[in-house]
Amino acid sequence: MNEILSRYLPRIEFDSYEDFYQNYSCKMPDDFNFAYDVADEWAKLQPEKLALVWTNDSEEMKTFTFAEIKRLSDKAANALISLGIKKGDVVKLILKQRPAVWVLMCALSKIGAICIPGTYQLTSKDLEYRCNIANVKLLITVDDRELLDSIIAARPNCPKLEKIAVVTHESSADTIPAGFLDMRAEIQKASETFSRIPSATKDPMLIYFSSGTTGLPKMVLHNHSLALGHIVTAKYWHCAEDNCVHLTQTDSGWAKFAWGKIYGQWICGAAVGVYDTEKFTPKGMLDAILRLKPATFCAPATVFRYLIKEDLSGYDFGFIRHTSVAGEPLSPEVYNKFKELTGLEIREGFGQSETSVMAAVFKWLPVKPGSMGKPSPLFDLKLLDENGSVCDEGIVGNMSITRAGKNMYESAECAPDNIPPVIGDSDFPGLFRGYWKDKEVTENSWKNGTYQTGDMAWEDDEGYMWFVGRNDDVIKCSGYRIGPFEVESALMEHPSVLECAVTAAPDTMRGQVVKATIVLARGFSASNELIRELQNHVKHVTAPYKYPRIIEFVPELPKTISGKIKRMEIRKKDFE
Hints:
9-stranded mixed β-sheet, 5-stranded parallel β-sheet
């Protein structure tokens, strides 16, 4: 029996998806704090229980027990306090996948400070915007030269950023710029004695900046209940197992990190697998998997698209029992090819930075390649039309959470220099509490007590949901509404296509036409003949009216720092 999991779930095992959906419930203490109540509790109950298994491109391997995580996070909490960090202060972490990520996220949770993870790909402009709008007091970064240069360039324009600390890759402090702190040294000299600071579940804990596919990134505010919301993500979709390794491949700056590399996994008793890569390569990923030997594995669709292009005949993945994907939809072609090569099914899940898993091919459900599965029991997920009515089967609607807690945005007024009151009830795990410091955007996302995600999907006669695209990505051509994903899925079946983005392009006769922007696989070259071949291929795979009348070949697709394709950027360029 998992002693931690059983504290929060009155019932852990279920006989079917229907049983799970109808009967799942989660206890929500008023004073829940993940660092104390999960990480520290494992250290108390099973000190030698494995918490992290870490590797990098140099094939180094390190492991950390929960006792070590507790000791280090207690020291880090004392170090942060000595640097002037207190409850409610905002600290930004840009730490790739260094072990310090887990230590410092726990330390910030213990103090009651608000953590804002960030990706190492942020530019000086990105850093300036984020630090100023969030009133970041302390920034802790890795010793990446390009990133440090961006931070140095941004710092004069960030008046409220008091301190910058660096976590070096090794023990050496040679790479730390003048005026920056050595975070390793600060933690090393701090006391190991730390007493619990009173906190509440409803206290702000974590802010993720949205991907920024439309306009400037928004600040997605979560409280401590997020961790309990991710039990569904880890236990019933990832199928993370007690005393086994779970590997979700993602940078610590992305919201997928909260989904797959800390909260639900540690509650389930799994050790988190970490591949701290400087530059993704398919072979590097495959070799890291062999070193980490995860029982359960999750990755973005892009990773699977690259893996199936590799020679997998020399790899034995018999230790993997469950595989999943999220971040972007996975085309049936990639699913089928990966299963053919490895024997593993990839179970899709869907959610946002604002939520835990909203829908998934949970472990009881047969896989329908290309479908995101069925709704999570945490949310009353419905597909709504423009009038707010539930859509019939087969009709595209806005994915909406219709059970949203009481008075969802009555406290959304956020003073510029103060931490805002929590939005919504603390007993609603897995759902964000609003867009910090933006009452208007928060209220516009909630219509009559319903959170409208802006993601469009349709439901089949068995209750499976099928992703169509963002509401502003749907193409309106000669009266038809065409979702980009279905065309992209058809294109991905062709061996020449490595990646693609389908968008609307202006047309004087039809209003809009379908355009495909394509990155070719190795061994293929752009030509008019290939364009015609791809167009005919789509006509045969899906409804002929959906074929791309325009095809453009490019060396790479524009993407957000979280790896999502920026279709808006392609569309905007075409409509200028």
